[in-house]
Write a structure and sequence with these properties.
CATH class of the largest domain: Alpha Beta
Largest sheet: 7 strands, mixed
Strand content: 5-15%
Strand order of the largest sheet: 1-10-9-5-4-2-3
Shape: globular
CATH topology of the largest domain: Rossmann fold
CATH architecture of the largest domain: 3-Layer(aba) Sandwich
Number of helices: 12
Helix content: 25-40%
Structural class: alpha/beta
Number of domains: 2
Order of helices and strands: EHHEHEHEHEHEEHHEHEHEHH
CATH superfamily of the largest domain: Alpha/Beta hydrolase fold, catalytic domain
Low-confidence stretches: 7-30, 32-39
Radius of gyration: 18 Å
Amino acid sequence: MTTRLLRRPLRSLWSIVLVAALALSVFVATGAAAAADYSTQPKPTIVLVHGAWADSSSWSRVIERLQRLGYTVLAPANPLRSLQSDSTYISSILAQVSGPIVLVGHSYGGMVITNAANGNTNVKALVYVSAFIPEQGENAFGLVGKDSHIVPPGTPGQTANLTPLGVPPFPPTNFDLYINPANFRDIFAADVPQEQTSIMAVTQRPATVTSFSEQSGAPAWTSIPASAILGGADHAIGTNSLLTMAKRLPGGRVVEIPGASHALMVSHPDAVTAFILAALQSIH
């Protein structure tokens, strides 16, 4: 596997560290080293927040690796009802955790962690996995890139592949959206085996229009160390948009995995796990 590491400037010595960490054997060594670093202080709890058209099981392979290294992991169900209510819910989960927290969000989960972490001094690091990284006042619909394969309903001259869920007539301002199953693999998980994406397509959890249209509040990443890992062939948000947002992070590490899809934690769990472990170093 090869990776591109981006930082201000876009390339740095971190590339040597991350490239090595992505191999499974070195991943285990990295985890052991991270565990040793916390031998004299509480190990952080790692909270994983999924995005739209997925559920907590999308983190299964990452959870397995983190638990093997002795970390407490939480993967709460993101309600996907509205940005404000989803953020409030995840914030309430964080409030029940004692000790340091590393908060990780995938896709729309990036919108949620950006807001949910505000005001919680236990959140020591944010990790964005192929995720939205909004500024204040932005919404998810507005951050989807031109290189995305998602076509929202009402796009002139194009057939929508985000489909309303249910039976019309739909509410005028808010209803559930899901990805047309025929387009799911291309948009969400092109590097995941077909037999697996076929199941993911029919078990996807829809998100409301409000989830994507509500404006984000003050971003927690301005005051909490944050980093981003993304796929070089992301057809959901779009790789170009992900890179643009990642450059906002003040001094944050940014890793791009060439050819990887939006479902990065499913197709590259070793890389995502190693990246989360590397984020622990920022909270000393």
